[in-house]
């Protein structure tokens, strides 16, 4: 009986659960007493007010101090604290192009300070993927760039900056999601690069992250035949135990990407995927967002499967205890409650991020005078980004319209007399939107196209393109300010004032 209780508690310890809603559920304290490893917050926990999101985190930390509390706060497009109003920090693509490690560190410290003030102990960031495929549907501007050495040095700087604030980093998505053309939320991607390519490209940032002391590394739901032709990385002993633990010497916590994603569990279900991942070498099992209020039941389903696997010998009990001990160590080091953020540190990080975005965006060339029209080309976003606010250019005096599936014809906009600005994310990746945009540009070659996603090669064929490398506030506003400067430069000069007031002679 004691052994069974010990196994069950250890099984709880390996689960990163979830719940629906914006308040702490009544059942959570019981699961925490049973040993639950942690809770991850998702879109269904996010209120419209960032202060309420932070308040939820603090409430969780106070109610269940043994839990590791996690969310995705990458800065840039992937934000949870600023989901409703857009992140005040640039994402990795801006930081990589600015290539100033002091700026990257300052941004990560500021994000860490905000998270610590919200009671969050684990940030599922930074993204260390080398975005070698410009059409990547799920990484893109979340990556520091396409050069492994650049990505490695900025990943290390981000890890050090974040962890200096008492928040654990989670470097993702091992062994690398940058060369994919499929979103692992929806299907199982495959990267057919040979071993030599993987060693000199995908793995370089993870080696740097481990050397920088990263507390955790997240697995990817990707098949890489050069490493394991049969299993995705999340379920592969060769990749997690053989490569990450053995050859790379990583001693921290291995966390799975969300197991409800199709790349992990479409064929076998979440509980079976959880058991397979633990056996492969993972320590903390991220279940994914709670569906239909089943958070407690989803945890119990996974725990029951893990306990059964220990009972039938599928999962060695020593592997389970090892995983639970690593989660215990993570909780002891980082789940230490909330503390107020240093406002100077936060503003320093935000200011550094704004400067980096301005430098990356640069100038936009000539823009006509008159009332501007900003057209938002709404193409949606991947599940990692969700419905977070994006692309607020803040162009002075602009009218803003959104174009979704029912595109107006180009002639509907061609008659606009003032400057025409079209803002989009990965426009060339959406066939209908791309066709509409090309028709509009043919009719209005003076239109300024603002690409806030990772630019596909087709973008270079457009006559007027501004690249923002992210849709959060710093790059979006940097584009808007550049447009305003260009408009002022081309505005007609005001009529000269008279020499002085007319005086009647007396």
Please explain how this structure is put together.
The chain has an eight-stranded parallel sheet. Strands 10-9-11-12-13 form a five-stranded parallel sheet, with no helix packed on it. It has helices at 2-13, 28-34, 50-63, 92-98, 101-117, 148-163, 195-200, 204-211, 237-247, 262-265, 270-280, 295-311, 317-334, 343-361, 410-414, 431-443, 473-490; strands at 15-17, 38-40, 68-71, 122-123, 168-174, 216-219, 253-255, 285-286, 373-377, 399-403, 420-424, 448-451, 465-467. With 506 residues, the chain is of the alpha/beta class. The protein contains 17 helices and 13 strands.
Features:
single chain, 506 residues, alpha/beta, eight-stranded parallel β-sheet, disordered C terminus
A few lines on this structure:
With 506 residues, the chain is an alpha/beta fold. Helix content is 40%, strand content 10%. Helix 4 (92-98) packs across helix 14 and helix 11 packs across helix 12 (295-311).
């Amino acid at each position: 009986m004691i052994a069974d209780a010990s196994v069950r508690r250890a099984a709880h310890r390996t689960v990163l659960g979830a719940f629906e809603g914006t308040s702490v559920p009544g059942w959570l304290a019981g699961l925490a007493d049973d040993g639950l490893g942690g809770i991850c917050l998702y879109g269904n926990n996010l209120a419209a007010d960032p202060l309420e999101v932070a308040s939820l985190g603090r409430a969780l930390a106070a109610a269940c101090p043994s839990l590791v509390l996690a969310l995705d706060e990458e800065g840039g497009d992937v934000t949870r604290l600023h989901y409703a109003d857009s992140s005040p920090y640039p994402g990795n693509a801006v930081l990589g192009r600015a290539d100033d490690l002091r700026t990257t560190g300052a941004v990560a410290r500021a994000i860490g300070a905000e998270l610590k003030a919200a009671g969050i102990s684990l940030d599922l960031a930074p993204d260390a993927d080398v975005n070698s495929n410009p059409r990547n549907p799920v990484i893109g501007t979340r990556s520091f760039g396409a050069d492994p050495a650049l990505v490695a040095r900025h990943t290390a700087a981000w890890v050090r900056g974040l962890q200096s604030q008492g928040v654990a980093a989670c470097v993702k998505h091992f062994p690398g999601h940058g060369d994919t053309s499929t979103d692992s939320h929806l299907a199982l991607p495959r990267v057919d690069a040979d071993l030599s390519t993987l060693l000199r490209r995908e793995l370089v940032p993870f080696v740097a992250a481990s050397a920088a002391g990263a507390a955790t590394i997240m697995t990817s739901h990707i098949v890489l035949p050069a490493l394991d032709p049969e299993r995705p990385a999340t379920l592969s002993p060769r990749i997690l135990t053989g490569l990450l633990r053995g050859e790379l010497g990583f001693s921290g916590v291995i966390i799975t990407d969300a197991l409800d994603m199709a790349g992990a569990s479409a064929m076998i279900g979440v509980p079976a995927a959880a058991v397979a991942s633990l056996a492969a070498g993972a320590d903390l099992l991220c279940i994914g967002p709670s569906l239909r209020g089943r958070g407690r039941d989803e945890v119990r389903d996974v725990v029951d499967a893990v306990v059964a696997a220990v009972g039938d010998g599928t999962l060695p009990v020593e592997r389970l205890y090892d995983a639970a001990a690593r989660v215990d160590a993570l909780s002891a080091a980082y789940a230490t409650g909330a503390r107020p953020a240093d406002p100077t540190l936060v503003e320093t990080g935000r200011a550094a991020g704004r400067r980096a975005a301005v430098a990356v965006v640069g100038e936009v060339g000539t823009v006509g005078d008159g009332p501007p029209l900003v057209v938002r080309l709404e193409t949606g976003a991947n599940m990692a980004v969700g419905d977070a606010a994006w692309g607020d250019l803040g162009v002075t005096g602009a009218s803003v319209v959104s174009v979704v599936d029912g595109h107006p014809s180009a002639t509907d906009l061609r008659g606009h007399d003032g400057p025409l600005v079209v803002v989009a994310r990965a426009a060339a990746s959406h066939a209908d939107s791309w066709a509409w945009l090309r028709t509009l540009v043919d009719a209005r070659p003076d239109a300024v196209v603002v690409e806030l996603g990772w630019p596909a090669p087709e973008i270079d064929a457009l006559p007027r393109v501004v690249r923002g490398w992210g849709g959060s506030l710093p790059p979006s506003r940097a584009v808007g300010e550049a447009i305003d400067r260009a408009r002022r430069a081309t505005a007609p000069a005001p009529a000269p004032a008279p020499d002085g007031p007319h005086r009647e002679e007396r």
